[in-house]
Structure formats: C-alpha cells, structure tokens
Model the fold of this input.
Amino acid sequence: MSNAVRFFAGIDWATETHQVCLIEAEGGKIIGERAFAHGGEGLAELCDWLASTSGAEPPMIAVAIEAPHGPVVEILLERRFQVDAVNPKQLDRFRDRFTVAGAKDDRRDAYVLADALRTDRHCFRRLAVEDPIVIELREWSRMAEDLQQERNRLGNRVREQLWRYYPQALELGDDLAADWFLELWALAPTPAKAARLRESRVTGLLKAHRIRRIETAEVLRILGQKPLVVAGGTVEAAIAHITAVAARLKLVNQQIKQAHRQLDELSDKLAESREEDAPGQKSEQHDVTILRSLPGVGRIVLATLLGEAAEPLRKRDYHALRTLSGVAPVTRRSGKRCVVLMRQACHLRLRTAVYHWARVAIQHDARSRARYAELRKRGHSHGRALRSVADRLLAVACAMLKTQTTFKSAICS
Done:
C-alpha cells in the first residue's frame, strides 16, 4: 500500500482549527492548503477535501501528524487514509531544513510534515486502528493511576492534620487513607474520645476489615497515650479538615476498587478476543496469559503494558519496547570521550510500570535477583541495576510472545 502513495499531506493540529497542506509525491509541489475547524463537520470536510483536491482514493494519500491519537487520527484511519506520526522534537529538526532563523507558523509546520513524510518516511511511525478493548483498557489504567495519586495527596493531608493534634494515631499504620483507619478515626477523632472507646467496637471494626497485623489492645494502647497540649480551636479545625478529606478519600477508595475490577475484566476480555481471532490455540498461549505468567507482572503493570505498548507487543518489537520504557541507555561518543546516560525521552507511564516490574521480579525470581546482585557488586546504582533487569525481562517477554510459551512452561522445559 505504501508504494502506491501518490500524495502526501501534513496536518498541524490544534484545539480549534487544523491546518492542512497537500503535496504531490513526485517533486513535492503544493497543490492545496486549507484550515478546518475542529468538530464532526469540520473533520469530515477535511477528509473530503483531501480526496477531492487530490482526485485519489484515500489509501493513496499518506497523512503526517504529530499526535498519534485523538479524533483527527481516528477519522482519518476510519476513512482508510494512511496515517503516520512523528515526534515533535523530530519535526523541529525537519523544520530546520526550511529555515534556520527559528521561524514557525501553522502553514509552515503543515508543509514540513508533508514534505518530511515524502522524503523520510522511515522516520515516521505508521498508525493503525486500535482494538476498542485496548483503548478502554488504556483509559481505565490512566484513571487508576490518577486516582492513586489523588489518594496519596489526600492521605498526606490527613497525616499533616493528625500531626498537629493527634500524633499517636500515626503509629497505627502507614496507610492513613485506608477505609479501616478512617472509620477508626471517626470513632475516636480526639484523644479524649479514644479514652472512652470500647474494646468491642475496635474488635468489630478490625474484624470487618480483616485487619490482623494489629490487635485491639495495641490499638487502644496507642490511642491512649498522653495527648499533645494545643491551642484552643486547633482540635476543632483539624477535625473539620479531616472530615472533609475523609469523605473524598472514601469515594476515591471506591473508585480505585472499581478501576481495578475493570482492569481485570478488560484484560480477560482482551484475552478472550485474541482467542476468538486465533481459533485452535490453547488459552495459555495468548499474549495476556503469557505476560501474566512473568514474575513481577501484576494487574497494574499488565494493564499499562497492554494499553501503552500495544503495537510493539503485537509486533514483538523488543527494541521499540526498551526504547519506549526508557531501559535502553543513550550513548554519547565523540573522539576518545564516551558517556552512557539514562534515557530521558521515553514513555513515562511505561518507565514507571517497567521499574516496578523489575523491582517485584527481583523479589520472586531467582534469575532476576542474581542479575541484580551481580550488577550491584559492579558498582551500579539501584535504578541502573533495575533497568538492566527490566531490559532482560523485556527480551524474555518478546521471546515468549514469539514462541507462544508461558514463563512457567519455559522454566519447566
């Protein structure tokens, strides 16, 4: 299909209007430039204009754009145009071909996109229609991360207020955003009320939430410690603050549980859809099951890999995975000078997921643990050693996906 391209288009997308430039494949002559409003009518008009101005079928028109997702990309793919994405930093370098003075405007960027796609298409990434389940999984994964960050922020506010007037409550545990702690605080919001707290109430609360790491007597002992002497109004102010934050925390905790259930359901649904696409395969031979079998891969890591790296996983592209996740180092060599640095240009969510994947893997996998220990003996930092472990795990994952083998079965064989 790519050999049949007769026209190239560049789209400089924006919030309100999108600037489009259409050029010929031979010679790069501009045959049309136009801006289109963002919206259903405007984007439909954009697609119709590309086809009518060029006089070619959509598969014969290749479109370059910076954003690899969004409504502009989706409607172009739905209309069967070839869509290629480029990193904004690369586009900035392509722009230097036409001006070294730093001039920049929407029309110029649209032309630069189209011409760069015509001459250097290998620098672009071909986009394809994504599985609806993957799109939904990615969104729930991002929502779960946002909710967890919100939970951490609210928990820190609870900690700050308790430190003001009730520091003994901080000794009950590190997770002050947990439902059981919030309910216990509601029963005894002040040291005075904690002194009158009945043992049966605490026992029932701990049993209801299945808390076994701390006994009722220990809870009462901690809360019964000598209280702080604070200024008048401090206790009332802190209680009002925690009450407002606790209501939000309870909602966030519910939403996190819902997001985790959705991640599990969507992952299972994705495995089932792949099974329907490839009848005759065993259930353990699907990508979701294979990735789940790897040490250190849990719900969050699995959802992040499937949602943010769907295309490299589908292509079993190890080099793309290690680059996107930031485990591939950057080498700067000039003459006798050679410096190897940590990669900064990567997908931050993938970097975080792969970091925790390696961190948990060294706790449960002997090979990963031995590799980590060896690197630490060489003088590598904790982060660098984990990136090397993650690099190996990505290579193992790609090999397993290619051979359709789970981690446990590969170990046994």
